[in-house]
Write a structure and sequence with these properties.
The structure holds two protein chains of two kinds. Chain A is an alpha/beta fold. Chain A contains 18 helices and six strands. Chain A has helices spanning 7-27, 34-53, 61-81, 87-112, 121-148, 163-182, 188-206, 214-236, 239-262, 267-272, 280-287, 297-305, 316-321, 324-336, 355-362, 373-376, 398-401, 452-465, and strands at residues 309-314, 340-345, 370-372, 385-389, 420-425, 445-449. Chain A has a six-stranded parallel beta sheet with strand order 3-2-1-4-5-6. In chain A, α1 (7-27) runs antiparallel to α2 (34-53) and α4 (87-112) packs antiparallel against α5. Chain A starts with 6 loop residues before the first helix and ends with a helix. Chain B is mostly helical. Helices cover 82% and strands 0% of the residues of chain B. Chain B contains four helices and no strands. In chain B, α2 packs antiparallel against α4 (57-96) and α3 runs antiparallel to α4 (57-96). The radius of gyration of chain B is 18 Å and the shape is flat. The chains are: A alpha/beta, B mainly alpha.
Chain lengths: 466, 97
């Protein structure tokens, strides 16, 4: 049985593993094959781990078992129990610990080799890159988690105009310490300083970013962790790490770009921060004295009951209020009454692209009732009542008409073409773009204020009583 | 060895671009979660460095933490993705009944 410890055999297992990753990811591109794709990738991971454990000369078995056991005990219940609405912050947390692992390994490499003494230059550079990016990802992800979990305020926290120079300074400190190590510095504090500076950079980068931009940031950090894993692979000469890390780096970059595009934001603008969430300043000037038409749950129920075609536009507010089951109940009741109901899903509705589909699928909304933006935009003209639940910027007609608006050019749902619109909203506060929504002042629009879940619940009760 | 690894790195990047750019919007969240699980491969780094003999108590503690982190990333990532996707699958089954 010596052949199982053979270097070539282990390398072959790695090749099988990353082939399975790629095959699995290909499966993830379609709804029919996605579940299988994920399982295939998981099998690939199991093979990669087994191959690593077969490496000749492995020891410290008890400690390895200990680490894996701790990880399993923490990870499995967390993944099992997390609510579907809390998924984005869970992904942030899982991403963060990955980055943290990379940084820790790089640190140990430094300590073990006495400051990379005698290591080839590329190993030093790759390890330092992994340490830096891994730390940024770890702390950045934790801040993102804190904001989404509402442990921290979701609004941007900045030091004003000094934010960019400060971030740059901290980044330069981290890089400078790295350069000293590359030039032959062996002192332990150099590496610790680099890790501390990179950690500070991670925190400083994510703090100024508003809660609504967080998905893009998580996606960006996901790509960063992938790249740091690939760098670690170069340093450790491990093919599986290089391939898997790089694939994640590439896919994460694409996903980040897609999300940013759908919001009509550029990635540099999001990272520059300070935009998402501080809407009061821009909004207050315009909505002060303009009147909106308020409605009651009873009126809304009557309007809905006598409609033929209803389109539901779910948004961020629905996700926050966890109203997906209540909405499903309401639309189920409407369907019993012979009302035809469709859901209009904006590409960035909710907290991540596709997040709204996941939430509504959880509440047993039939898959074919979920219409993507391009498929449903022409149907708003035929909609008797459009029910907007906690969506704001994605319904703002200013994106089509007002060149001066910050969201001009963003693809939106043509809610304003419907015969009537009911908007469920917590308050008149503008959305994350900080712009007032003309839709609310239209004569056809009425607003029902309150938490999305309780508003939907009230309408359902009124509907039952009809 | 470096040149070979760099070639693998670049090719893997292109594979990533090619495979991922075809994903429908609906599956972006599960995809992000799935790729997130895959970069849990850093677990391997922790295993190699610890298994091939790290010296010193602090080093060992750091590596155990790194392995625990990597395991959380892998196990949690795949489970969460499976849960999200499972809901789509059940829907399909109900429809076909």
């Amino acid at each position: 049985m010596t052949w199982i410890h053979d270097e070539a055999f282990i390398q072959c297992l790695y090749i099988i593993a990353f082939a399975l990753f790629i095959y699995g990811l290909m499966g993830l591109t379609g709804p029919h094959t996605a579940v299988r794709g994920n399982k295939i990738a998981a099998v690939g991971m199991a093979i990669a781990v087994i191959a690593t454990l077969l490496t000749p000369g492995m020891g410290n078995w008890w400690l390895i078992v200990l680490g894996v056991a701790i990880g399993t005990v923490v990870g499995v219940p967390a993944a099992r129990r997390v609510k579907m609405t809390a998924m984005p912050q869970m992904v942030a947390l899982f991403n963060g610990v990955g980055g943290g692992a990379v940084a820790l390994i790089a640190w140990v490499e430094f300590r073990d080799s006495d400051g990379f003494a005698g290591a080839p230059l590329y190993v030093v550079i790759a390890s330092l890159f992994a340490a830096l990016v891994g730390s940024v990802s770890f702390w950045g992800s934790n801040v993102a988690f804190g904001k989404l979990q509402e442990i921290m305020p979701g609004r941007p926290i900045t030091v004003g105009k000094l934010q960019q120079p400060l971030n740059l300074l901290v980044a330069l400190v981290a890089v400078a310490l790295g350069v000293i190590v590359v030039a032959g510095g062996h002192a332990g504090w150099l590496m610790i300083g680099l890790l501390v500076a990179a950690s500070a950079l991670g925190v400083l980068m994510v703090l100024p970013i508003g809660g609504a931009d967080m998905p893009v940031v998580i996606s960006l950090l996901n790509a960063a962790t992938g790249l740091s894993a690939a760098a670690m692979g170069l340093a450790l000469d491990n093919t599986a790490l290089i391939v898997a890390g790089m694939i994640v780096g590439a896919s994460g970059s694409i996903l980040t770009n897609l999300m940013a595009k759908a919001m009509n934001r550029s990635i540099p603008a999001i990272v520059a921060g300070g935009f998402g969430g501080n809407g009061e300043i821009a909004g207050a000037s315009t909505n002060g004295d303009r009147a909106v038409r308020q409605t009651s749950a009873a009126d809304a129920a009557i309007q809905l009951a006598f409609a033929r075609q209803v389109i539901v536009v779910p948004g961020y507010g629905l996700a926050v209020a966890q109203a997906q089951h209540a909405v499903r109940q309401l639309t189920g009741l409407l369907e019993q009454k012979g009302v035809s109901v469709a859901y209009a899903i904006h590409p960035v509705a909710g907290r991540m692209p596709g997040h709204m589909n996941v939430l509504l699928a959880e509440a047993d909304v039939p898959y074919e009732h979920l219409k993507e933006m391009d498929a449903i935009n022409d149907e708003f003209g035929r909609s008797d009542v459009t029910l907007v639940i906690g969506a704001n910027d994605v319904t703002n007609p200013a994106a089509r008409t007002d060149r001066s608006s910050p969201i001009f050019g963003m693809p939106i749902l043509n809610v304003d073409e419907s015969r009537s619109v009911i908007v469920l909203k917590r308050s008149m506060r503008p959305g994350f773009a900080g712009v007032d929504n003309e839709l609310y002042y239209e004569p056809r629009t009425s607003l029902l204020f309150g938490d999305a879940k309780s508003s939907v619940h009230d309408i359902t009760e009124e509907l039952k009583a009809l | 060895m470096l040149v070979q690894n760099l070639a693998v790195l670049v090719l893997a990047g292109f594979v990533g671009f090619a495979v991922i750019s075809k994903v429908p919007n609906t599956l972006h969240t599960p995809l992000m979660s799935g790729t997130n699980a895959i970069h849990g491969i850093v677990l391997l780094g922790g295993l190699v460095v610890l298994g091939l003999g790290a010296e010193g108590v602090l080093n060992k503690i750091l590596l155990v933490i790194a392995i625990a982190f990597g395991t959380i990333n892998v196990v949690g990532g795949f489970l969460v993705t499976d849960r999200m996707l499972g809901m789509f699958k059940d829907k399909k089954k109900d429809v076909s009944k």
